Predict the structure.
Amino acid sequence: MNTPLINTIITENQAFQRLKTTDGPAPLMVGFVGIKTLITDLLKTDPDNLSIIEALHLLQDQGWQDASSMLDHYEEEQQEKYQIAFFRLQALVATAVNTIQAS
């Protein structure tokens, strides 16, 4: 596996996990897209790696649903639902990154 790229993904995830709901959705969306892009790049270096494929599918499918939900709740000023969706997206990214690290 591409160790420098994996280390970059881990570092980006650490910053992503430190984001707070009070930061608003923009930093979370930028971080989500950035990490998803890095994982896509990692898959290009090892296209048959099932852990990377699983992580990318997780972000592609559930990640976009959670992100969309979070943005909707933020725009509708539904603070509690926004926070739940925010934390759910953070947890999903952590799961995807952990999946890659476990391989």
User: Anything to note?
Assistant: Residues 44 and 52 are 10 Å apart (CA to CA). The chain has a mean pLDDT of 95.
